[in-house]
Fold:
Amino acid sequence: MSSSAPARTGGYHHGDLRNALIQAAADLAQSGGPGSVTIRAAARAVGVTPTAAYRHFAGHEELLHAAKERAMERLSETMSEALTRVPDTGDRVRRAVCAVAAIGRGYLDFAHAEPGLFRTAFAAKAEVPAFAETAPFRRLVEALDELTAAGFLPAQRRPMAEIAAWSSVHGLAMLTLDGPLRAVGAPERRQAMERLVEIIVEGLGGHALTPELRADIQKFAS
Structure:
C-alpha cells in the first residue's frame, strides 16, 4: 500500500490544522493501514510542511493515536447502525439476542469494508483507545445484562461474558482478514458469524436455542 495520500485541494481552514492532519492521518490509515500514518505523509496530504505539523503533534505515535481514535469512531458508527435495525418485538430475550448478533455482524462487516481502519483501530503501537468506553461495547454489555435480567443468561455465567463474546468475534475478523480464512467469501464469513453467535449465545445460556432464536440470529448475524 502507498504511504502517501494526494494533496488536498483548497488546503485547510485557518486555525483548524490539527483536525485537518487527523483527517489526513485517517485517510492514510484507510488506504494503507497503520504503517502508512506518518507526520510527513499527513503534512504532505494537507499541503503544509512537517515542521508545521509538529506544532500540533509531538511525533508519529501521537498522530497514530489520533488516527486510531478516528478509526474506532468509524467502527462504533457501523456497529451502532447495525443496532438500529433490531426491532422492538416486545420479547426481551429475542431483542437482546438480536442485538448481540447485530453487533457481531457490524464488527465483521467493518473489518472487511474498511480493513485499513480496522487494523489501525487495533494496531499494536500507540495506546489503543479503550474499547470498553465506546458506545457499541457498552451496548454489548447492556444486551448481555438484558439477557440476564430476562432470565436467559444465568447470573453466575454473566461475569466477563462481554470479553468472551468480543474475543470470539474479533478472532473471526482477524482470521478472515489476515489469517488462514482470508480467502473465504462473504457468504462463508456470514455463515461462520451466524454459527459463532449461536455458539456464544448457547454457551452463555447453558441450553439449546429455540428455533425462533436461531431464526433471529440467522437474520441479524448472516
Remarks:
- The two ends are 30 Å apart (CA to CA).
- The domain at 1-57 is CATH 1.10.10.60 (Arc Repressor Mutant, subunit A).
- Residues 82 and 102 are 6 Å apart (CA to CA).
- DSSP finds ten helices and no strands in the chain.
